[in-house]
Specification:
The protein has 16 helices and 15 strands. With 522 residues, the chain is α/β, with parallel strands linked by helices.
């Protein structure tokens, strides 16, 4: 087993290409290894000729030609080159940052790619990556995160003249040129794929395996949708229940075994069930079999419009905030009688949405909307959470967060100087030095946690002050607010409202949650 295998924890996207027995040291005494990177995008067909095996062969050949003894390879399989949201490249970034911060003694000596476009296919991404993680900090004029004391060697095997060298303007020009060509090439691929997809759809074929409508499966051999008989029957029953029996989507979902009403609504709106495919706002007759008739689909759309007009969406003051004090379920507004007023009832007593039921035997009562809203408004306008003016802390000029940040930077600098003063071989053989280094690291961890806690406390304090200010001004402004404005204020100030049997109303303000969290942090 080589040095890398013993000292680096393997990840799913990592592979050891070359591994010697001794610690790999550079001329400054750093533990230095080569890192190779390869990538294929989500559309591998568009990148034919740049497969993972081809890239590996190029990298291995290069390492052997240059007698590279220590090298790991990182792989992003199926990730776009337009950003850095990929696990393997993020591992490399973390590796660089950990070494610079003194958390790791393993340094990435070089980054090897088979071609520049394997790193990224967007010019801005390539350029910023070089600025942030490859150049030395003194040369990275456009980076806010670079802490490299020395640059990392960047190697593109297919473009050996494409170097990262601030002292050589020609190499910088070539790098920018090839990064631009990589972006241009991606644009060409995207255009080609889009044209091919549009041509398929115009011919009636489905646009791919993703987002297949319920009732079908995609057959790549014929390039179109194939009917699933049992699902076809359910689709037809959904339309019948909705149009003929006027059944609401949630009840249809419960009867036919769907998770919720949203999927029913989506099925009712899908024109692909009529045998159509669409692209760029245009619709074409598809090759797949329709599941319902045009007349039934039209009737469903008319019914949907009618229901939305009839029901409307009244602005209820406390919607979404009310909970049952008996079973814990949410409570809802429900129209009651011809007066237009509502009662507030527990969802456990309304089994139309079974997923919201907590206890089918819930004995809580039904309450008039006006009674509950009046009780909540009274508590809001007289909330006793403004604070005791006699218990105000004196002001201080001592900024805890800024001082903690300075402490962290001081300890990191001290740790870095320790590493610079001794070779890693000496550090491994000297137990007292090991102990000092570990103490420094523990101090950094402790300061970092304290900084995180203090920043959270500051955020909570700002939230507390904002809520207190809103409560102080509420009594004078409430009468002049619209119903929508009042509803917005309730959502901003109230965490939840609990109604107990007998009509006792408990209003839990968000301020209570913030104060509790702040006290916990304190």
């Amino acid at each position: 087993m080589g040095w890398i295998a013993k000292n680096i924890k393997m990840k799913p996207f990592m592979e050891i290409l070359f591994d010697g027995e001794e610690r790999p040291l550079d001329k400054w005494g750093n533990t230095a290894i080569y890192v190779a990177y390869r990538r294929v995008s989500t559309d591998k067909q568009a990148e034919e000729g740049f497969g993972l095996e081809v890239q590996k062969e190029d990298i291995v050949r290069y390492c052997r030609q240059h007698d590279i003894q220590y090298c790991i390879m990182l792989t992003d399989d199926g990730y776009t080159g337009t950003n850095l949201n990929r696990p393997a490249i993020q591992y490399f970034i973390q590796m660089v940052q950990d070494y610079n911060a003194g958390y790791s003694h393993i340094k990435a000596n070089s980054l090897i790619v088979s071609r520049l476009d394997r790193l990224a296919r967007a010019l801005s991404v390539n350029l910023q990556f070089i600025q942030d993680y490859i150049l030395s900090a003194r040369d990275a004029k456009n980076s806010l995160v670079n802490t490299n004391e020395e640059p990392i060697n960047f190697i593109s095997i297919a473009e050996p003249f494409c170097r990262v060298d601030p002292e050589n303007p020609t190499s910088t020009l070539m790098f920018n040129l090839f990064a631009t060509l990589a972006e241009f090439d991606r644009g060409q691929i995207v255009t080609k794929l889009k044209r091919g997809r549009n041509k398929r759809i115009e011919g009636g074929k489905w646009h791919g395996g993703g987002n297949v409508p319920y009732g079908y499966r995609y057959d790549p051999k014929i390039g179109t949708l194939v009917v699933i008989p049992e699902e076809k029957e359910k689709v037809q029953e959904i339309f019948r229940l909705y149009v003929e029996e006027k059944m609401p989507p949630q009840k249809i979902a419960d009867r036919l075994g769907f998770k919720g009403d949203k999927i029913i609504t989506q099925i009712l709106k899908r024109r692909s069930l009529l045998g159509y495919v669409s692209v760029d706002g245009k619709e074409y007759k598809g090759l797949h079999e329709p599941l319902i008739s045009e007349s039934l689909f039209a009737a469903a759309q008319e019914e949907m419009i009618l229901r939305s007009v009839v029901r409307g969406k009244p602005c209820y003051l406390l919607t979404g905030l009310i909970y049952c004090g008996e079973c814990g379920a949410k409570m809802r507004y429900q129209k009651w009688g011809k007066s237009g007023e509502c009662k507030i009832i527990c969802y456990s007593q309304q089994p139309s949405k079974m997923k919201l039921v907590k206890d089918i035997h819930c004995q809580n009562e039904k309450y008039w909307q006006s009674d509950i809203e009046d009780a909540v408004i009274r508590q809001l306008l007289h909330a006793n959470y403004i604070g005791n003016k006699n218990n105000v802390k004196s002001a201080t000029n001592y900024n805890i967060t800024e001082n903690l940040k300075r402490d962290i930077e001081r300890e990191k600098e001290s740790l870095k100087k320790l590493f610079q003063s001794f070779s890693y071989a000496e550090a491994d053989d000297d137990d007292s030095l090991k102990e000092i280094i570990e103490e420094k690291r523990e101090t950094i961890r402790r300061y970092t946690k304290a900084l995180h806690d203090e920043e959270e406390k500051e955020v909570l304090t700002r939230k507390v002050m904002a809520v207190k200010d809103k409560l102080r001004s509420l009594a004078g402004s409430w009468d002049y607010m619209t119903q929508q404005e009042r509803q917005s204020v309730c959502r901003e100030l109230i965490e939840k409202i609990v109604i107990h049997k007998g009509g006792t109303v408990d209003v839990h303000l968000r301020l209570e949650k913030y104060l509790f969290a702040s006290n916990q942090k304190g």
